């Protein structure tokens, strides 16, 4: 029999106990059912008298009968199977969780869609990261943060958040790994180093090599970011750490290092150093070599200061008389009192210590030596102070910098390049590229400096710029490819251009540059292959013609394959029959031979004249150029006369058509026509002059056939000679390549 004491206990247990223990732990036919559950009715525990369970009071103590295990599992006497009920509840809960997860996934996908469509949307990234932080979904957070850092690795604040999430939701080791990735991505971040060091101090204090681990981390941080003008907090933290561990000599060494670094709080460090020297005994804060050297200097100075005729022993006795107030000295070899300059741990009164001449001498010499470092450093800080004051945003952000900020950075870099050492100059460039990571000219300026100062690092800087920060800016990638080609690394140059072409498929420059890399490399078969691939893959007819034109020029001028070049141009004309430049380039193939190939030139002109796609005005121009060619290089006068007659006929037809065209246009209303009388004197004179010039021009064109086929006047849009360089005059001056 089992007594359920009260209803208050009913809420503290569940069916789980029965499910876990009864079928496996007890080997009985009948078992005690331990279910402290009374509400809403005693369905599972009917009363002894067999009355309706709902009629029993729930507040009094109840006695329950033993229920057979088989009957319980089968749900006899109207009872339900608890196991199936529990499974159903779990299934319903799982369905609810799945529904919630599905909703969360849909919300997450919305944030992802924004940054997939535009990876440069920094605000969209911040919303995504904020969402995964709130959801505490480690898998989603890792995916989001990793993708974010592939675009923006200089955001040290998000590295801290990422590491904190790993620490909270995963393991300490995973968080440490994230910190390592962060300081590798942005090694100049003093804040990130400090956060990392605090993390290690908090979570690894029980390790055997705890001090060494933290010490090494401090050294790495100082080496990476200790030269930063705003690195004072890191130096102070390092000093405090060594003081906590009673490593006074290490503290002195740290101060000696920081006193040579131009930092914002350079004076603060010197003051703290002087306090450090005054507070501790010289023997405890100096290296053995320096301490003994200074003590030797003190002894020599004492001998020199002794009166003439007085021996060293007498000088010593004199000194002993001076220090008589300190009491009798113990016998030599007895450790009752320390030697001068060494602390007496049993003596609280430090008055004798402060008045110790030797200790005072050594302290003064130590400070004097470091004061020279301080003054030299102070001068360096003064030369840079104005530039540092001009840096208002030393951290990374996608918002553009003000012009004054950019100007200050450029001038500061020029100053450091001319006056600073190499290590300090590199640090300044790296600082600059954190704030100016999205500016191509800053990266190129750094690369130009390294190319002369440290060429081995140029590739690394190019890679960081082109694959992370300036992925969508082609100029620096083109410069990288040119740099690789200049050093004979043609394969690397081709790979860089291919990757740029994949990132920005609508850009022609990387495609054409890649082809020309192969040409300069001496691979004509590869050049032809790439050109034909471009012709096949592009969908734009104008681009097909552009690539065909370049391929034909390469075949004719580099490989002297005129017939293949001719076929390429004819295929291009089949695709683009209205492209006048293709006809002209086809004519160039014959014109540039020595002597010019009359059949090839005439074939090109006849193709243009016979074309049904070209407008009559363009045909007249080609007929004019045909006539000019025959006049200059033709061998049959009959062909010249035939071309002249054909040209005159077409010119007259054009003239008749031009006269009919104005009558077909809608007439202006009388109100809109300005009467000559209504014009002022100057306007009337200008109108009369314009009419006279137009009449004279029309009369000349109608009567003088030579004027009609004067190609320099009629064909102003085409080059004035057959050389191909002039054929590109019609392209926009802003770019060598056509827009599309």
Please give the alpha-carbon distance between the first and last residues: 91 Å
Radius of gyration: 46 Å
Could you say which structural class the secondary elements and strand pairing correspond to? Answer: mainly alpha
Number of helices: 34
Question: Layout of SSEs?
Answer:
Elements: E1 2-4, H1 16-25, E2 30-31, E3 62-64, E4 67-68, H2 69-74, H3 82-117, H4 122-135, H5 138-151, H6 156-169, H7 172-185, H8 190-203, H9 210-225, H10 232-244, H11 248-258, H12 266-279, H13 282-285, H14 288-305, H15 312-322, H16 351-354, H17 357-389, H18 403-419, H19 422-435, H20 440-453, H21 458-469, H22 474-486, H23 490-503, H24 509-521, H25 524-537, H26 541-557, H27 562-575, H28 580-591, H29 598-610, H30 616-633, H31 637-664, H32 681-703, H33 705-708, H34 711-714
Antiparallel strand pairs: 1-3, 2-4
Helix pairs in contact: 3-4, 4-5, 5-6, 6-7, 6-8, 7-8, 8-9, 10-11, 12-17, 14-17, 18-19, 19-20, 20-21, 21-22, 22-23, 23-24, 24-25, 25-26, 26-27, 27-28, 28-29, 29-30, 30-31
């Amino acid at each position: 029999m089992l007594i359920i004491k009260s209803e208050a206990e009913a809420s503290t247990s569940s069916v789980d106990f029965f499910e876990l223990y009864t079928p496996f732990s007890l080997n009985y036919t009948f078992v005690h059912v331990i279910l402290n559950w009374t509400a809403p009715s005693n369905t599972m525990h009917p009363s002894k008298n067999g009355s309706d369970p709902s009629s029993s009071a729930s507040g009094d103590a109840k006695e329950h009968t033993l229920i057979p295990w088989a009957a319980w599992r089968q749900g006899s006497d109207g009872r339900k199977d608890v196991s199936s009920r529990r499974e159903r509840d779990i299934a319903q809960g799982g369905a609810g969780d799945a529904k919630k997860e599905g909703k969360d996934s849909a919300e997450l996908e919305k944030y992802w869609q924004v940054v997939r469509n535009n990876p440069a949307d920094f605000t969209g990234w911040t919303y995504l990261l904020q969402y995964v932080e709130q959801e505490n979904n480690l898998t989603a957070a890792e995916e989001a943060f990793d993708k974010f850092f592939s675009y923006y690795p200089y955001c040290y604040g998000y590295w801290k958040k990422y590491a904190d999430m790993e620490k909270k939701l995963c393991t300490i080791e995973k968080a440490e790994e994230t910190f390592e990735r962060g300081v590798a991505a942005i090694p100049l971040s003093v804040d990130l180093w400090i956060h990392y060091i605090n993390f290690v101090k908090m979570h690894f204090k029980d390790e055997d090599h705890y001090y060494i681990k933290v010490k090494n981390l401090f050294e790495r941080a100082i080496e990476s970011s200790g030269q930063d003008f705003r690195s004072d907090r890191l130096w102070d933290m390092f000093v405090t750490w060594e003081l906590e561990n009673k490593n006074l000599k290490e503290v002195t060494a740290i101060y000696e290092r920081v006193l040579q670094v131009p930092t914002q709080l350079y004076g603060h460090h010197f003051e703290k150093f002087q306090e450090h020297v005054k507070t501790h005994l010289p023997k405890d804060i100096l290296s053995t070599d320096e301490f003994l050297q200074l003590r030797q200097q003190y002894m020599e100075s004492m001998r020199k200061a002794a009166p003439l005729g007085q021996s060293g022993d007498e000088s010593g006795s004199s000194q002993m008389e001076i220090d008589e107030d300190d009491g009798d000295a113990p016998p030599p070899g007895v450790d009752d009192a320390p030697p001068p300059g060494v602390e007496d741990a049993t003596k609280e009164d430090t008055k004798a210590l402060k008045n110790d001449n030797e200790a005072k001498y050594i302290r003064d010499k130590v400070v004097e030596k470091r004061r020279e470092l301080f003054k030299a450093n102070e001068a360096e800080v003064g030369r840079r102070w104005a530039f540092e004051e001009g840096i208002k945003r030393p951290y990374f952000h996608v918002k553009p910098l003000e012009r004054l900020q950019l100007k200050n950075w450029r001038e500061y870099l020029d100053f450091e390049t001319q006056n600073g050492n190499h290590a300090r100059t590199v640090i300044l460039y790296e600082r600059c590229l954190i704030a100016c990571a999205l500016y191509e000219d800053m990266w190129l300026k750094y690369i130009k400096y390294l190319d002369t100062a440290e060429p081995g690092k140029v590739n690394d800087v190019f890679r960081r710029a082109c694959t992370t920060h300036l992925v969508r800016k082609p100029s620096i990638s083109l410069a990288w490819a040119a740099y690789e080609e200049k050093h004979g690394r043609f394969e690397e140059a081709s790979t860089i251009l291919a990757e740029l072409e994949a990132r920005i498929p609508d850009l022609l420059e990387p495609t054409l540059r890649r082809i020309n890399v192969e040409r300069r490399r001496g691979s004509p078969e590869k050049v032809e292959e790439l050109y034909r691939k471009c012709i096949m893959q592009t969908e734009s007819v104008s681009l097909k013609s552009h690539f065909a034109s370049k391929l034909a020029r390469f075949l004719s001028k580099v490989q002297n394959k005129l017939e293949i070049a001719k076929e390429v141009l004819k295929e291009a004309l089949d695709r683009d029959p209205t492209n006048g430049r293709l006809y002209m380039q086809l004519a160039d193939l014959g014109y540039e031979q020595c002597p010019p190939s009359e059949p090839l030139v005439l074939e090109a002109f006849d193709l243009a004249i016979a074309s049904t796609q070209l407008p009559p005005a363009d045909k007249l121009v080609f007929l004019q150029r045909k006539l000019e060619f025959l006049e200059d290089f033709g061998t049959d006068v009959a062909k010249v006369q035939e071309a002249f007659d054909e040209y005159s006929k077409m010119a007259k037809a054009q003239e008749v058509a031009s006269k009919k065209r104005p009558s077909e246009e809608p007439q202006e209303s009388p109100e809109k026509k300005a009467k000559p009388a209504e014009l002022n004197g100057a306007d009337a004179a200008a109108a009369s002059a314009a009419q006279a010039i137009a009449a004279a021009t029309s009369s000349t064109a109608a009567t003088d056939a030579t004027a009609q086929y004067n190609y320099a006047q009629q064909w102003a849009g085409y080059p004035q000679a057959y050389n191909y360089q002039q054929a590109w005059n019609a392209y926009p001056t802003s770019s060598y390549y056509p827009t599309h």
